[in-house]
Amino acid sequence: MNEERPVTGRWFEELAVGFSIKHAITRTITETDNILFTSLTMNPQPLHLDETFAAQTEFGQRLVNSLLTLSLLVGVTVYDLTLGTTIANLGFESIEFPKPVFHGDTIRAESAVIASRPSQKRPDAGIVTFEHRAYNQRGELVAHCRRAALMRRKPTSVESEKEETNVK
Fold first, then answer.
1. Which of 142, 163, 118, 129 is CA-nearest to residue 26?
2. What angle do CA 109, 110, 113 make, to 5 degrees?
3. pLDDT tens-digit profile of 23-47?
4. What are the boundaries of each domain within the chain?
5. If you classify domain 12-160 with CATH, what class do you get?
6. Average pLDDT over all residues of the chain
7. What would the DSSP string read from start to end of 69-100?
8. 20 strand-pairing partners
9. Spatial distance between the Cα atoms of 59 and 139, rounded to a whole number of angstroms
10. Alpha helix locations (H) across 2-121?
11. Maximum alpha-carbon separation in the chain
């Protein structure tokens, strides 16, 4: 039996310029998260892995790998924005890390749509540019990025009927 997956993301038509959301999901980053991510991505930077080395830096402790912070920032937005409705991530326009993230920091995210237009090549899709922001538990901005995604248009009632017939 071929059951249709539930969609929690928003369709292209629901992502107009000015739409914004505070994401409900938060995540505390652990030492294990940081070591595992850094090791899996083959990043030998001692600032992420070596407590003795990091203690001698201006930060006084290990930093969370910034690409883990970026991945987490985008990841927590998926449930509210793109789960089941995105076709492809098209790229990042800018990525910034204004404050460091440390083990034990809890990250929350906010997103806004800053650009939206129908796709010129795909009538079933549109291109949306999101601005994502991550804050720590002190309300400090720790990451910011702009990314473009190719988003599905909401199926028409005729398409929906065809999909329902094919599923049964």
1. 142
2. 140
3. 999 999 999 999 999 999 999 999 9
4. 12-160
5. alpha beta
6. 92
7. HHHHHHHTTHHHHTTTTEEEEEEEEEEE--S-
8. 112
9. 19
10. 31-40, 46-49, 51-55, 66-75, 78-81
11. 65
